[in-house]
């Protein structure tokens, strides 16, 4: 299994946004969607669970990934990371990222 390098973790963790594209059944990538992203240890969270593989771009990193379910026990820590990273934005933008609906779509990105 591939792992993230320290440089990749740092660059994506500092990125304001991440481009995420899931893989279609035929193996082609869907149109990328821009999402906010936070780092929690060696992972980032947020996105879609339509497929379990895709591609990301952020902070100069361009990588194929696997989407895994995030551990629900980390929700409060992930929410705190969002509030810290995006604190300069109004609550109307940040609050939906930490709402129960967003928590239900939280994913872990694993390099492949």
Main-sheet strand order equals 2-1-5-6-7
Spell the H/E element sequence: HEEEEEEHHHE
Structural Rg = 13 Å
Distance from first to last alpha carbon: 7 Å
What CATH calls the topology is Pnp Oxidase, Chain A
Unreliable stretches:
44-50
The biggest sheet, with number of strands, parallel, antiparallel or mixed sense and barrel status, is:
5 strands, antiparallel
Query: What's the total helix number?
Result: 4
> Based on the structure given, which CATH architecture is correct?
Roll
Quickly name the level 1 CATH class. Answer: Mainly Beta
How many discrete domains?
Answer: 1
What is the molecular shape? globular
Number of strands: 7
Brief overview, please?
With 112 residues, the chain is α+β, with helices and mostly antiparallel strands. It has helices spanning 6-14, 75-85, 91-94, 100-103; strands spanning 17-22, 33-36, 38-40, 43-45, 53-58, 61-69, 107-111. The longest helix is centred in the last third of the chain and has 11 residues, at 75-85.
Descriptive overview:
- This protein is α+β, with helices and mostly antiparallel strands.
- The chain has a single domain (6-111), classed as Pnp Oxidase, Chain A (Roll), CATH 2.30.110.10.
- The chain is 25% helix and 32% strand.
- The chain has helices at residues 6-14, 75-85, 91-94, 100-103, and strands spanning 17-22, 33-36, 38-40, 43-45, 53-58, 61-69, 107-111.
- The strands form two sheets. A five-stranded antiparallel sheet has the order 2-1-5-6-7.
- A hairpin with a 2-residue loop joins strand 5 (53-58) and strand 6.
- The protein is globular, with a radius of gyration of 13 Å.
- The termini are close together.
């Amino acid at each position: 299994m591939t792992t993230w390098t320290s440089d990749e973790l740092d660059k994506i963790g500092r990125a304001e946004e991440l481009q995420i594209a899931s893989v279609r059944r035929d193996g082609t990538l869907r149109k990328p969607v821009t999402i906010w992203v936070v780092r929690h240890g060696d992972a980032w969270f947020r996105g879609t669970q339509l497929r379990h593989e895709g591609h990301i771009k952020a902070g100069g990193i361009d990588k194929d990934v696997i989407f895994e379910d995030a551990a629900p026990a980390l929700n409060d820590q992930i929410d705190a990371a969002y509030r810290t990273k995006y604190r300069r934005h109004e609550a109307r933008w940040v609050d939906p990222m930490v709402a129960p609906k967003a928590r239900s779509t939280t994913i872990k990105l694993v390099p492949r």
